[in-house]
Every structure is written in C-alpha cells, then in structure tokens.
Amino acid sequence: MLTPTVVTDRIEWDRIVAALPGGHLLQSWDWGQLKGRHGWSAERLAWYDSHKQPAACVQILTRSVPLPGGLGRLCVRYSPRGPCLDWSDGDLSKQVLDTLQVRSVERGTVFVKVDPETPDSPQPEEPSPDPVSLPAESIQKILRASAWRPSSEQVQFRNTMVLDLRASEDQLLAGMKQKTRYNLRLAERRGVVVRPAGLEDLDRLYRMYAETSLRDGFVIRDRAYYNDAWGTFFNNGLAQPFLAEVEGESVAGLIVFRLGRRAWYLYGMSRELHRELMPAYLLQWEAIRWARREGCEVYDFWGAPDRLDPQDPLWGVYRFKEGFGSRLVSGVGAWDYTVRPRLYWFYTAVLPRVLGLMRLRGRAQTGHAVD
Known about the structure:
The chain is an alpha+beta fold.
C-alpha cells in the first residue's frame, strides 16, 4: 500500500501533475494558490511508487460556507479535475478514493466532490448522441463501487473538444472544415489583426468579457478576480492573452493556458462590433500556433454539449470548435461522497436557490462594468 505525502513545493507539484494521466491545469499549484486568495484553502497529496516516482496526486480545495441567517457554517471539499492517476490500476484507485473519504469524515465535511479528467482515447468513427466514452464509463464504475454518487452540481464542463498539435501547421489547416478555413482567411483579408496582449490589457479584456456574459447569459466574477487569475498565470509563463483588433480597436480576445504538453482555451470574449469579420477564428488560430511553439501536443477547447443535439445551447459552440478539426472527448462528470445525507440534501437542494438570488445581483453588477 502506498502512503500519501503532502507536497509543499511548487515546481515538484506541477511536475507531478504534468506527468500523470489526467493531469490538468485545475490541479496546478497556481490554480490552488488562486483559489486560496478567494475563499478556499488548498491541500496537495501525492502517492509515490517503490521507485519514488509519482503514481497519483490530488489537489483538494476546502471551503467553509456560511449558512443563511447566521445558522453556522458548512465545510465542503472539491478536487477540480482530480484525482490524477492511472484508473486502470484498481488498487491505486481504491487507495486514493479511500484517502479522500476518510479525510472528509475526519474533518467534518458535508461532502467531497471530484471530477477526474478522462484519459485521451481514440475517436469513434461515428459520434454517439450521448458521448460517454469507455474510459469515462470505467472510471464511473470505480466511483460508484466506492459509494460515490453522480453530482447534481457539475462545476466544470463534463465534455470537451481536443485538437492534436503534433501535426504541422499546414496539416492543421488542411484538417479544418472548409468554412473554418474560409472564415480564418476572411478575417485576415478584412484587416483583423491579432496581437499578444499583456498586463496592461487585462481591463480591456475584462470589459469585453463582461459584455459577452451579458449577451450570452452567463454569470462572471468581478474584475479583481480575473485580473488575479489571468495575471498570475501570465506572470508565471503559463498563460498568454490575445487581442483581435480592427483599425486599432479591440473587438475580441481570449486567454490560453498551458501546463506540461497541454494547452487550454479557458476564456473568450467579444464585442458586437465587427463580428461579421470573424475575429474569433483568427484568434483561435494564433492561440493554437502559440501552444505549438510552447511545446504543447494537445489544445483543449474546454467545453462541449452533454449530448450531441442541435437543440443544446452549446451546439453552436460545438460546431465552431469542431471546425478546427478537434474531436469530442466525453468526461466522467462530477461525483460526490458524503456520510451526512441530511446536510448534503440541504446543500444541494436548498442552498442553490439562495445562491441563485446572489447570482442575479452579480449579473446586475456585471452590467455596471460594461456601462
């Protein structure tokens, strides 16, 4: 049996995460530090084999949530895109899950949530309307057998789209849908210019992100949070913002992150101005080229529909990402473990209604950021 070790060194931790199957940006040291500045605390555990090589790791975020009316606090724990390990190793999987369960009981936690990354697998010849891959199913069976339950709160996207970057730029262009190549060239011909952005551009990016959230109907955090998130990873060489401009005026942007041999497109923003010039296509291409130069082998477009249904709200996003030659990777989804079913019911059934009201207030505040 392997014994978990607390890791306190940033370089060592990121090396472990990058090397293990399912290693993800949300398990990185900087992500834990970011969350630590915004209400969470991070703990990092690693399991080493007999050769002192990392076999598994998990970054666990813990938060104490106040109850309405001053009725006390609830403690919840979450491992975003963790744990990271080879799930085909049944003994190791059980050891890691057992550790998470025991620690949650000992520390009076209402529940602990995980949503492991699905290992890359070959693309099926015909995508299924319900894109749950065999690797995802096998991990779900392990979780279910260890008394975990599918969560009603899917914090991250369950599915994503990934692009293999090991091909040449010409091969990547040839692998795109014809319409995507056309729109990319159209943006270039019509004067869209994409440039790397810096810290001085973060406020501009946030204003466009706020405009995007109001137009597309999703809630975002305040300006300080994104300045922290984007700036931290940029300063540490793990992120690069890009701006698309027309005659010197910003019309769209994105931020691409990297860890190890993988890159993630996590944030995109745009204005109504000059959308007909297709700046989003040229932005993605320049982000993909940057990721290749940084040595990445996979570009993760971050987010896809739960079902391949044209009625799904993310269908247009799926078609856009598919146009670049990316393929669908189905996810495990979020899973919860609890030994306090009554408190768990309160947190999952009652508290979301309270938080919904808080999000409405947040949306109004976002509107002021655009004005």
